[in-house]
Amino acid sequence: MALTQHEAEVKDVFLLKLIECNAENPVNVDEINMLKNHTIPESKTAKCLLACVFKKTSWMDEKGLFVMENAVKLTEEKHPKNSPALENSKKLFELCTKVNEEIFNDGEEDCERAAKLARCLIENATKLGFQLK
């Protein structure tokens, strides 16, 4: 099944930020393909690329914490009010706020938390009816 228009718009926002962040955190072609296929590479650079993307979309704050309110705000801009997709987005974000409770040892880089957040979003999105392709 293809992406809905709203899902495609959200994905486009992230792709634009990914391109911007690749200048600061260059990853190789294989890692880009992994990300496009919703697999998180293990390299520190790829994880830091994700942290950059989440920060540029305001989904992570300067302390590296997931900001659910900002994720909901972007989703509200892209999904009609009271739509099942909007409600499921909120459920997805609520599930993934648990990454804020974990302690990571990468200082202020926030790369490990970003990778964990991305994994949580990917693993749970399809369970809530979202298309990732």
Description:
- By secondary structure, this protein is mostly helical.
- It has a single domain, classed as Orthogonal Bundle (Recoverin, domain 1).
- It is 59% helix and 0% strand.
- The chain is built from 6 helices and no strands.
- It is globular, with a radius of gyration of 14 Å.
- The chain starts with a helix and ends in an 8-residue tail after the last helix.
- The model has no long low-confidence stretch (mean pLDDT 87).
Topology:
Layout: H1 5-22, H2 29-36, H3 44-56, H4 68-78, H5 84-96, H6 111-125
InterPro entries: PBP/GOBP
GO molecular function, one term: odorant binding
Protein name: (apollo) hypothetical protein
Which features does this protein show?
single chain; globular; mainly alpha; Recoverin, domain 1; 133 residues; (apollo) hypothetical protein
Cα gyration radius (Å): 14 Å
| Order of helix and strand elements from N to C terminus | HHHHHH
CATH topology: Recoverin, domain 1
Contiguous low-pLDDT stretches (5 residues minimum) are none
Please indicate the count of domains: 1
Helix content: 55-70%
